[in-house]
Write a structure and sequence with these properties.
Blueprint (H helix, E strand, L loop, with lengths): L17 E7 L3 H12 L6 E7 L6 H10 L5 E5 L6 H11 L4 E6 L2 E3 L3 H12 L3 E10 L2 E5 L12 H5 L12 E3 H6 L11 H9 L6 E12 L8 H14 L1 H5 L5 H18 L3 H13 L5 H13 L5 H6 L2
Parallel strand pairs: 1-2, 1-4, 2-3, 6-9
Antiparallel strand pairs: 4-8, 5-9, 6-7, 6-8
């Protein structure tokens, strides 16, 4: 059936198959929680595909396979080697039998009504994709809860995403038509960070997102979230901007703010880790494409120094 003309029918709980894609790497201890959340879905017409990216034969792979084996309905695939998240997602997309695709990070969890409510919203809007609100938990406490609104936070969200106004929270909040994912080219395997951003930029070229404003995903944060490799972050920003320059340029007057925002994130992390030369390169990139927001720069600098446990004098000498 041509895009934009498919129908879910009157029974929105058993009409269109949803493939839930779950990629995992070095986290078998939390994988069970993610899988349990899929198995608790009130929406029944689903398949679950787990892609293990630990490398075949490793202890992590064996432990992960043992965990998944306790879920007979789950389709399990182990990559021969560690290929990265994007490659794992693309393998599952090619194998998926569902007309709709949902994605779940191995440390997140779906609420039980997640798929049912998103399918219903997709039926109501006939959209190519639906995302939902979510909450973040850190050390067993509520860290953040999104409050995106119907109408206001729907449509082409590329600019809001690029400016950090709307994170969309990566893949776990999304339900997309498989045809739209294919049209967007799947996930770019060059990216080791910003995988979801790179995909969504391509998605928003031809498609929009509607919103299911219920909080339907819990994102579990841990201390590793604050551990960022500044060199990799710098490299990925360069790749991101070189790959999507034309997509960014279409946002006109907002372009300087986009570049400033992204490069300032790298500047903060480099400064926090005491990598001063790379911090200055990031700052130069942040200001080369537009105006300089001095108050924000000063706040970022003060915060980075406050949260750094490095000796900046020694770090400077080592550059």
């Amino acid at each position: 059936m041509p895009p934009g003309q498919w129908q879910l029918g009157s029974d929105s709980t058993n009409n269109v198959k949803v493939s839930v894609i779950l990629t995992t790497h070095r986290r078998p201890q939390v994988l069970r929680r993610a899988l349990d959340s899929v198995m608790r879905q009130t929406y029944q017409d689903i398949e679950v595909i787990v892609v293990d990216d630990n490398g075949h034969g490793t202890e992590m792979q064996k432990e992960t396979e043992a965990t998944v084996s306790q879920y007979p309905k789950a389709i399990y695939h182990a990559n021969l080697n560690n290929l990265g998240k994007a490659a794992s997602l693309n393998w599952a997309i090619r194998e998926a039998g569902g007309e709709l695709l949902a994605f779940l990070d191995d440390d997140d969890e779906f609420h039980s009504e997640k798929l049912a409510r998103q399918v219903a919203r997709m039926k109501a809007t006939n959209a190519s994709g639906v995302y939902c609100n979510y909450k973040r938990i850190f050390r067993n406490k509520l860290y953040f809860k999104s409050t995106h609104e119907l109408g206001k936070d729907e449509g082409d969200l590329a600019l809001d995403m690029l400016l950090g106004i709307n994170e969309i929270c990566g893949g776990s909040t999304l339900l997309l038509r498989s045809s739209a994912v294919t049209e967007a080219g799947g996930f770019d395997e060059r990216f080791k960070r910003h995988i979801d951003w790179a995909f969504l930029i391509c998605y928003f070229r031809n498609h929009k997102l509607s919103l299911c404003d219920d909080v339907l995903v819990t994102v579990h944060m841990d201390d590793q979230m604050w551990t960022v490799n500044p060199e990799l972050q710098f490299e990925m920003k360069q790749l991101f901007f070189s790959s999507f320059e034309q997509d960014i340029v279409r946002h006109g007057k907002a372009v300087p703010d986009i570049y400033f925002k992204h490069w300032l994130d790298v500047y903060f992390e480099c400064l926090r880790r005491g990598q001063l030369v790379l911090a200055l390169r990031s700052l130069r990139s942040a200001t080369s494409r537009g105006h300089l927001n001095i108050p924000k720069l000063l706040r970022i600098t003060a915060s980075a120094i406050k949260h750094s446990n490095l000796n900046f004098k020694q770090a400077s000498l080592n550059q």
